[in-house]
Amino acid sequence: MKTKLVFKKILMSLLVTMVASISFAQKNQIEKANQEFDKYSYIDAREIYLKVVEDGYESAQVFQKLGDTYYYNSEYADAAKWYQKLIGQYPNEVEPIYYYRTSQCLKSLGNYEEADQMMDAYASVGGTGIILNNYKEDPNYLKSIAFQAKGYEVQKVRINTEHSDFGTSYYGPDKLVFSSATKNTEGAKIHDWNEEPFLDLFVAQRDAQGYLSNVTPLDGDVNTEYHESSATFTKDGNTMYFTRNSFTDGKKGRDKNKTIRLKIYKAIKSGENFWTNVEELPFNSNDFSTAHPALSKDEKRLYFASDRPGTFGMSDIWYVDINEDGTYGAPINLGPNINTEAREGFPFVSEMNNLYFSSDGHSGLGGLDILVAPLDENGKAGKVTNLGEPANSKKDDFAFIIEENKRIGYLSSNRDGNQGSISDDIYRVQEKCEITITGIVTNAATGEPLPGATVSLLDENNQEVATVTADESGKYNFEALAACDSDYIIRGKSDGCEYNEKLVKTPNKTGTITVPMPLECDPCPPNDLGCRLSLQPIYFDFDRYNIRPDAEVELAKILAAMRQYPELVIHIESHTDSRGNDEYNRILSDKRAQSTLNWLVSKGIDKNRLSAKGYGESQLQNRCSNGVECTEEEHQLNRRSMFIIQEPAN
What we know:
By secondary structure, the chain is an alpha+beta fold. About 20% of the residues lie in helices and about 30% in strands.
């Protein structure tokens, strides 16, 4: 009984039961950098718009701008309030995109029925786009929302028994081999300490969706009265490497402490399914364990786990080269990128040359965690990544294998066992298709990159998935953060530029898509208050200089700003078009400038904070000078007033 118990402890110590340092993944919190103080940057457009509304002045543009200031900061309750005012009071002035944004805001508040109504309105006023198409195709989209967590969908397979079942390996195109403590034959040895039989290798049929059935013992000379587990097969299905305790020709091998270690064996298939010619590999030893064989993609290298001399910790992942003559090279440790001072095991190399393995030394969720690292053409491992939940749990998760082109695989875990249980089960894994979205943020006018720009990824319900900062070349990257066949919003922003957002439909296959992010960058001159507050042109009736009602809405913004910031000093510049003689236009523009000044003074602004001057037609904005035939719209561009922030007098 002692021999059985000691072997089981070694087996499970190396293969299954490991204590991990729990590291709970936390979402990185992105804090806004403090903006460098600028003597004009205190002009907060949102504050001004709110003051304008408080003073009783309203327009479609004010409601639109107010809504945007909240929308782009993900304050959707307030954004919805102002967008609904915009739609309700100025329906003929609403651009289609604002119905869509209103719908997004309402979704974030859980008001799905109202959100759908906004999408219907969006369609009726000429809205287009991917999200609209999807909405039309699937109006019951709430019932279609799939599992959102990144990674895998995990499902326990039906072939599990009441005993331990674990350690799957692919055996040809339609079979799976695994280890089970289910009694194989009458009279099989039973562990006294847990009343479970010793492990044997079994084979199951595997259909195209990865579901398993028709379990039978692996036929031949592989299974013995002691433990067998963790097999790997060549692609032709004729050679197998597997783990067994040190037991050859009926004799047990022991180390100096009388402990039975683990070894890797090789077997050859004879006939249809009979495995024979079992032989121990030459790099085994009675003094340490060697287990968990896994073949490389080209089958020229055999990976395994071992605690042999040179191991960094309790067990490491190693490999040997398989020479053309069938001999083996010297064992080589994969190094500290993979191996830690703790335990690593269960290697598997996928067809995409990714090395999957389990460890309790890398940061994880508890127990053994499954990790992955890409292998280059020389077999060097790259960055290690934890697969995260639900592939990993707080308990032991290991023996991960996957056909990445089919996105279906298997893992083993004791996650459903009782506390402290070492009874394992096999789980079918459905990999969630993942998309990397990348692009370059540029100035739309010049094409120059905008390093430091902020780019956000939002899902179809307008919830933020991630926000990143563009690098020195203007590049942003959302690596494997988007699901396949889904709708997303990419939103870009940079200082001095307008927001831009794009609706993106991801493909149905894992990969990378490029989404350029051009931004309209026409920053306001530092002292141009009209630009900062998005003032609409102030128009005057022909040959008049009185303030019209529509101009009062714009002047109300100036009024609110001057009330909000008592130190603000404004110079008013008024201009005319080229029609009429130069002197007449100069006088007319001066009267208009003075009329504007008087309006502000009449509202309580100290006249000492204002100055005004007319420039006539001397500073035309376009080609419409004397004698040039222009449209009325072109002439209107020159009939403008500008509001210039001046340095306060000392």
